[in-house]
Amino acid sequence: MAYKKYYLPKDFILGAAASAWQTEGWCGKKEFQDSFMDVWYKADPNLWHNGYGPTIATDFYNRYHEDVKLMGEIGLNAYRTSIDWSRFIKNYETAEVDEDAAEYYNDLIDDLIKNGVEPMICLEHYELPAVLLEKYGGWGSKHVVELYVKYAEQVFKLYGDRVKYFFTFNEPIVIQTRAFLDSIRYPFKQDTKTAMQWSYNKILASAKAIEDYKRGNYNKDGKIGIILNIEVTYPRSSAEHDVMAAKIYDLFFNRIFLDPCVKGVLPDELLKILKYHHCSFEFTQEELNIIKNNTVQILGLNLYAPARVKARDSAWNPSTPFHPSYYYEKFELPGRKMNLSRGWEIYPKIMYDMAMRIKNEYGNIEWLVTENGMGIENEQNFKNEDGVIQDDYRIEFISDHLRWLLKAIEEGSNCKGYMLWAFTDNVSPQNAFKNRYGLVEIDLDDNRNRRIKKSGYWYKEVLKNRYFEYKDFTPEYK
After folding, report:
1. pLDDT digits (tens, 9 = 90+) for 209-240
2. Choice between 473 and 409, residue whose per-residue pLDDT is larger
3. Span 410-463, pLDDT tens digits
4. What phi and psi values does residue 157 have, to the nearest 5 degrees?
5. How far is residue 346 from each of residues 1, 171, 340, 408, measured CA to CA in Å?
6. 3-state secondary structure of 7
7. Which of 170, 177, 210 is nearest to 196 (CA)?
């Protein structure tokens, strides 16, 4: 099969991503500075693969100079990470800043810039201070929304002069979906109404932080947005009942954030369904006006795998509280390509399909792929005689997804970049270090030392040459 060269557009950002809690570890944290993820791990360490959690993570807090140097060596255009709210603030009510944390993040940002890497900073990546969950019920509280905005303002004041890309949240739907909707994560409470209130309050918090950012005029070149984990949704068939099931899935897991964050308006269909099932969240007209007037300036989308759904085959148990799956069931496409380590379907065309949707339905807003990647178990089995992981599967995965993204850009999509998850292997919720995602290995058997994988060297060449070669699938594009 012939290979084709795929060229990156001028100024297209090619980088990598991570988060604070998945890399930093607990070093430097005070006793009262637990995050949501910290207390979850403390409550159920046995649920995390081999017991690994955020305690040490990759020890980025102590080794960030080393990692940033590697980023510069590979040539990353940008690095996206988060500031741990629970670490950054000393008094969560007054938003008094912890000076040690502020100095650490300040030095990290400066070090990135010095090494030619654009810092992209997210304000919340599951790092809600645990005390705010215990005292106020977390994101179910409007008071927590106000405390978040105070925290965001402190970040903008300290780093807004150098950081050109801020994001209010990463995957804001995830915690409440896992914890309150599906009840498969801490604190394991099935309560759909609470899950919906958390989502709405995060939408409001994002809009209020954007309002503060715009008012502060911190950086004339700066932009602020939100990062959503979009599931490109496909119906099992073209039959009306399956199409409707897919639309409702999309409504609950994509449009619930996409519409208000980009268009400034909550979907009417969603509000009607929630009212019908007695799961409406509390809101005011004043809040809706804030949401309408403070939409994102840039959008981040985490794209991993498609969602395939069908109409339900069985009746809903009337004694079971409402869940969106009242209207759908998941569907597994026969013959699908799979990442067996993660249990996710591999379908690179999601990049193109979502890019076209953003172009056609959401005003072709400027956006980035803020996460995409492949987690593989037992990568040590792929080491060569020099100890370098030969992750050709990751190179193929990235190439296949990038070529579909570039096709969309050629057809007018306003996508400005691609951020691989992740730069180094890191801790994931419950999976811990089971599935490895990095361009750089974290060797747990060797003091967490770093070693660039084959994919890291390949990424370096793509960044240097601004193109990559991949199989020519031209007929698929027609």
Report:
1. 999 999 999 999 999 999 999 999 999 999 99
2. 409
3. 999 999 999 999 999 999 998 999 999 999 999 999 999 999 999 999 999 999
4. -65, -40
5. 21, 20, 10, 18
6. strand
7. 177
The reply to whether the predicted model has a pTM over 0.85 is yes
For the chain, the three-class secondary structure string (H helix, E strand, C coil) is CCEEEEECCCCCEEEEECCCCCCCCCCCCCCCCCEHHHHHHHHCHHHCHHHCCCCCCCCHHHHHHHHHHHHHHHCCCEEEEECCHHHHEEECCCCEECHHHHHHHHHHHHHHHHCCCEEEEECCCCCCEHHHHHHHCHHHCHHHHHHHHHHHHHHHHHHCCCCCEEEEEECCCHHHHHHHHCCCCCCCCCCHHHHHHHHHHHHHHHHHHHHHHHHHCCCCCCEEEEEECCCCEEECCCCHHHHHHHHHHHHHHHHHHHHHHHHCCCCHHHHHHHHHCCCCCCCCHHHHHHHHHCCCCEEEEECCCCEEEECCCCCCCCCCCCCHHHHCEECCCCCCCEECCCCEECCCCHHHHHHHHHHHHCCCCCEEEEECCCCEECHHHHECCCCCECCHHHHHHHHHHHHHHHHHHHCCCCEEEEEEECCECCCECCCECCEECCCEEEECCCCCEEEECHHHHHHHHHHHHCEEEEECCHHHHC
Is-contact 356 408, C-beta < 8 A? yes
Q: How far apart are CA 220 and CA 85, in angstroms?
A: 25
CB proximity list for 186: less than 8 A, separation 6 or greater: 39, 40, 43, 44, 179
Q: CB of 167 within 8 A of CB of 225?
A: yes
Q: Can you give the pLDDT at residue 340?
A: 86
329: part of which helix (H) or strand (E)? strand 329-330
Q: Collapsing DSSP states into helix, strand and coil, what is residue 100? A: helix
Q: What average pLDDT does range 371-375 have in this prediction?
A: 97
Instruction: Report the amino acid identity of residue 301.
Output: L
Catalytic amino acids? Answer: 171, 371
Q: What does pLDDT average to over the chain?
A: 96
Through-space distance between the first and last CA atoms of the chain, rounded to whole angstroms: 18
Residue 122 CB-half CA count within 13 A: 26
Phi, psi angles (nearest 5°) of residue 137? 85, 20
C-alpha span between 104 and 126 (Å, rounded): 20
In SS3 terms, 400-440 reads as HHHHHHHHHHHCCCCEEEEEEECCECCCECCCECCEECCCE
Report residue 381 CA to chain centroid gap. Answer: 28
Do 130 and 187 form a contact (C-beta atoms < 8 A)?
no
- Taking the C-alpha atoms of residue 455 and residue 452, their distance in angstroms, rounded to an integer, is 8
